[in-house]
């Protein structure tokens, strides 16, 4: 038996990277999956975003584990679209137990990051989108009266400042940092609001992970131009990038009964980056 047998997980940003990794890991533990991704480009983002083909690959990997999955193209910035995806999942599976607010973008360096729209896109995807994802699930989580677990993906950048000079204070970097700090407040507010229903809410704070959002030329290739930014986010352990699975392992534990009394917590998975 798996630790999550009979559970259903609702995951934003599931086409690839951490989102796919979380879907696959929770499926291995017995959960059925409801997920979505924008599968389109956002103008301020300088690297390619996930595609419908990549979302289909997530479906294949979950189904290969013998679990069921509902996956749809939807923009986390669109409240109605997010709710529609969950409704499709509820129609298929009849319940939701776990919410992983994972969708993210990183338009933090390069020409597009200097445009004010990069600020708005970061806030809309990684702050407002988190609210839409959680709010979609709250009525069912409460009505079921079986408790639940919510995990918000923040960042090491949600626990410390990410700039050391005016050169790297782009609208995108500021928006990313503000959103990742902001979800800590959201997490605590939701933990207080939902605790009496035995619904736990925590935030996870990874350092840079080896996913397309980080491991791309627009970000890592900019290291020689803004070394102070990368110095600010240096890990203590001798690793430049962690793996998506490292974050998924923490999520799998947080949403399991082994963490049943953990709520309102800030959990770094950061190779020591925030200890400096």
TrEMBL record:
Name of a matching Pfam family: adh_short_C2
Keyword NAD: yes
Keywords from the UniProt entry: NAD, Oxidoreductase
GO molecular function, one term: oxidoreductase activity
Domain of life: Bacteria
Family matches, as InterPro entries: NAD(P)-bd_dom_sf (IPR036291), SDR_fam (IPR002347), SDR_subfam_1 (IPR023985)
Keyword NAD (UniProt): yes
Record family assignment: Belongs to the short-chain dehydrogenases/reductases (SDR) family.
Name of the protein described by the UniProt record: 3-ketoacyl-ACP reductase
